[in-house]
Each structure stands twice: as structure tokens, then as C-alpha cells.
Amino acid sequence: GQQVMQIPQYQHVQEGEDFTTYCNSSTTLSNIQWYKQRPGGHPVFLIQLVKSGEVKKQKRLTFQFGEAKKNSSLHITATQTTDVGTYFCAGPGTTSGTYKYIFGTGTRLKVLA
Amino acid sequence: NAGVTQTPKFRILKIGQSMTLQCTQDMNHNYMYWYRQDPGMGLKLIYYSVGAGITDKGEVPNGYNVSRSTTEDFPLRLELAAPSQTSVYFCAGENSGANVLTFGAGSRLTVL
Asked: How many CB pairs under 8 A join A and B?
């Protein structure tokens, strides 16, 4: 079945360093979303990407959707302790759209002050 | 708006007991979902609903049941609790076409 993998699984960085997580789908995605889950919390929607090659920025966060719409990345510039949490990508189950969202395995970020 | 509200927040069950996790929303979400998240893992879809009276299985439906008698409520039923069902359960809602899931705060269930 369809799989969405993320690497790395864990990342520890010093505060101020950059961080990148990569999301790879076994199938083409019509769109992709990114969520952040703080420790002990629930996933919170960050952004959605729809177009091939799309790049979106939110302050220190840069999101990119691959040209083939099978991969995506989230880059955080100059991490802060508030960035701690697990970042998930998620996409619909088929290219035609579906109500079933497949979540990636997640990347857990720890920021050391 | 309260958003997506889940109760209870915490529950301990004995093996074989039954319980219902409640989920209600006031955001006019027509699509609703139940996920489980095991420690340190990702989210697995249990059941989902695209409207009142319509439900369907996700990736891991065994041991669970759902109903959607109203648009607002989407309860998850565990009939015979097993230790493998120890997890955090998240309910989420979505307005059709938005591709944005709004999650509840979660229900942490322990089966002993």
C-alpha cells in the first residue's frame, strides 16, 4: 500500500542551527500538508502545498513540494526552543483525492539551548 | 467556537471492558476522522466519516466501531479492550475540500 516516509526520524540541533525534514511518498500526491505536534499535544496544521515545485514561507519555515509531487521538505532557519516537536507531512491516499489522509512517520526535533 | 472536543482526556480500562470515546465539533466539519498514535509513532487512521450516517474503515479498524448520527458527533467505541489498544486517540474534523484537519486535544487510553 501507499507509504509516506520521513527522514530523519530524530534530529537534535543547537539553538540557532538550521533544520530540515524530508517527506517521501511512494505515490504521486495531489497535495501535501504539514503539521506540528508539540510534546504531549495534538497535531496542528501548518501549511498546504498543491502545485508542483511550489515553495511557501512562514517566517523562519520554508516548505517545498517536489516537481514530481512525490516529495516535500520543511526547512527551519535558525531554530529556536519553540520549534521543539514532531513534524508530520500528510497527503491524500490517491492522486485523485480521497478522504483518507496518509501521515508520514514524523521527524522529532529537539533544540538544545 | 470550541472546535473539536474530545472526552475523556485520560482513561484506564481493564482487559475486556468497553468504553466510548466522545468527539464533538462545532465547526461544521462534514468530514471527521479517528486516529490512534502509539508512543513515538505516527498517526494511524481507524475510521472516518464523510457525513451523517456515512462511515468507513481506515487502516486499523479492528476492535473499534463508530457511528455518525449527527454532523456534530463522531463517537468511537471499543467493545472488548485489549492491551494493544493502549494509545492516544485523536479525533479530527475537516470541511470538505479544505484539506486541513483540525484535531482535538486527544484521549489517552491505557488498557491493563
From this structure: 48
Q: Which residues contact B87 (CB under 8 A, 6 or more apart)?
A: B36, B37, B38, B109
The ranges of chain A with pLDDT < 50 are 95-97
The pLDDT value given to residue B98: 82
DSSP B21-69: EEEEESS--SEEEEEEE-TT--EEEEEEEEETTEEEE-S--TTEEE--S
Predicted confidence (pLDDT) at residue B68 exceeds the cutoff of 80: yes
Q: Of A33, A92, A104, which has the smallest distance from its Cβ to B100's Cβ? A: A33
Q: Do B101 and A45 touch (CB under 8 A)?
A: yes
Q: Which residues of B touch A48 (CB under 8 A)?
A: 99-100
CB-CB under 8 Å, B48 with A90: no
Assess whether pLDDT exceeds 50 at residue B56.
yes
Tell me whether residues A88 and B31 touch, CB distance under 8 A.
no
* Chain A residues within an 8 Å CB radius of B103: 42-44
B39 Cα distance to chain centroid: 17
* Average pLDDT value for residue range B40-63: 92
Is B37:B92 a contact under the CB 8 Å cutoff?
Answer: no
Cα A78 to chain centroid, rounded: 17
Q: How far apart are CA B112 and CA B15, in angstroms?
A: 6
Does the beta-carbon distance from A48 to B99 stay under 8 Å? yes
